[in-house]
Amino acid sequence: MAALINVPSKAKRGEIIEIRTLTSHIMETGFRHTADGKLVPRDIITSFICRYNGAEVFRADLFPAIAANPYLSFFTVAKESGKFEFEWIGDNGYSSTASASITVE
Amino acid sequence: MIVWRAIAAAIFLVTGPALLAAEIPPDARRSGYAFMGPDTRAMQDDDTANPGMLFVLDGEQLWKKKTGSADRACADCHGDARTSMKGVAARYPAFDKALGRPVTLDQRINLCRAIHQQATPLPYETRDLLALSAFVAHQSRGNPITAGDDPQLKPFVDQGRDLFMQREGQLNLACTNCHDDNFDKRLAGAPITQGQPTGYPLYRLEWQTLGSLERRLRSCMSGVRAQAYDYGSPELVALELYLMSRARGLPMETPAVRP
Fold first, then answer.
1. Looking at domain A3-104, what is its CATH homologous superfamily?
2. Which side of chain B, N or C, has fewer Cβ within a 10 Å radius?
């Protein structure tokens, strides 16, 4: 699925950087019914993980009240050049990944 | 008696011009963006926070993907959309010579699929159709709207204007009653805009997804308790055409974000 990641391409060592992520997902709550009364089964992202050169720096659990196409923004300290890896995990075996690289001077 | 008549006449003279719907002069036309709060504006302005851009990304993939029995992609004929599709959406709905009537961008995509790709049409409001039209319309971002300039479209623009001015539904309201006469006021808590279709298909927070102008028109129609026209009906296309010609000169914003 499409994802939009905003990581600064360059940062100074020790600088606090903001990371913003947006991903496609319907986030169906599991509380809605169709016109003929059937329950629409829940289909949401349940967790999000961000790894910086393999080490986990941010994790979030997501719940049915979170809007479609979840947007998450968080901060970390730029320590070394390398790669951020993002992973979204959800219902029905949903899994999606994205990555972005950073140069630390 | 005479006094009462004079008062009635005075009231009529004062309120008369306001009741007669006047079209908004060109320099007073404002996009729905101007009616939004700072948070929603920020969301639209930042391409990494605008959820509509997810659909644009999907549309870019579909643009390059071969499909149909002709096994051709949009890109095989149109090449790089950044140049070939620039300004195109700003003049849609456009007149189709073969059909002898205007077609919307969604209908043009499906005509292209049927004729050149020999593929099945994408149903209205499906993710793929919205993604493709968002991708195409995104190439016109910043371009001024010119739809309705083609003289062949004149009767259809007029039809759309008549529909815009026509009262309908159990609430007996015409589009013009809100969007020409009462913009800048509020309906419940929400601002009434001029109804300028500058950013379609757009991401509506209420919908939690991207939607077409036709979807927006249909939800206004059910709002006034009227029977909404079907997707792709000549009436909706005419309304869409009139609205675009009414927004002439405003820059395209696709994909816009609206509350």
1. Immunoglobulins (2.60.40.10)
2. N
Q: Verify whether the Cβ–Cβ distance A71 to B51 is below 8 Å.
A: yes
pLDDT per residue over B10-34, tens digit each? 554 444 444 455 789 989 999 999 9
- Going by pLDDT thresholds of 50, 70 and 90, the confidence category of residue A96 is very high
Q: Are A30 and A38 in contact (CB under 8 A)?
A: no
**C-alpha to C-alpha distance for B209 and B207, rounded to whole angstroms:** 5
Which of B49, B205, B208 is nearest residue A22 as measured by Cβ atoms?
Answer: B49
Q: Looking at chain A, which residue has its C-alpha nearest residue B131?
A: A2
Count of domains observed in chain B: 1
**Which of A22, A17, A28, A29 is closest to A5 using CA atoms?**
A22
How far does the CA of residue B239 sit from the closest CA of chain A (Å)? 29
Look up the CATH number of the domain holding residue B145.
1.10.760.10
> Of chain A residues 38-97, which have a CB less than 8 A from chain B?
67-69, 71
In a domain, B44, yes or no: yes
Domain range spanning residue B224?
A: 26-259
**pLDDT tens for residues A51-83?**
999 999 999 999 999 999 999 999 999 999 999
The pTM for the full model equals: 0.89
Interface of B with A (CB under 8 A): 47-49, 51, 53-55, 57-58, 205, 208-209
Average pLDDT for residues B189-204, to the nearest whole number?
Answer: 96
B7 lies in some domain: no
Ranges of each domain in chain A:
3-104
Per DSSP, A45 falls in state E
Q: Which residues of A touch B208 (CB under 8 A)?
A: 26-27, 67-69
